[in-house]
């Protein structure tokens, strides 16, 4: 029978130091293909998949998650690779947490390109900004009447066309400046004061969910 051990795969979405303040767990780097299978052989109680490698050959496979679930090991996904896999496998028992998971589930986003980013291999520090974070904050700016719906769609479209390592808020604001109808200064101020790291927030939610489950 699995013990109460929790293994969490996380890197750029949430620093291990911050994660440990929320939940006591075995924190590991972003998952590659085979990592979930190897971890399941150690019989943990819960595996939480947050960050994972995105590539056709190296990504966490559906099969290894399904095999893990068959061992009665809980598998939770959120924020990045975890949110994507949970939206695909929740019908088989994988638990999805957070806004990004919900968007994948509802089909409002459907590509791993939404959560992709580049990061330092040494400390997992993000070196670009994922599209989903930019999308979310532009939606908030629209709700606050900083930009219009049409302007938001234009900025998202322009950002999406850029290769994901080149996406960031500075680049977004440069794009906004090229369009006189967009209030560049107001958007800049809004982002500086109110922007949210949605991937980080969803990662925290997943860890808090596990902690709450441990109390029950």
From TrEMBL:
Annotated source species: Methanonatronarchaeum thermophilum
Domain of life from the UniProt record: Archaea
Residue ranges constituting the TfuA-like core domain according to the UniProt record: 51-167
Pfam family, one: TfuA
Name of the protein this chain belongs to: TfuA-like core domain-containing protein
NCBIfam families per UniProt: ThioGly_TfuA_rel
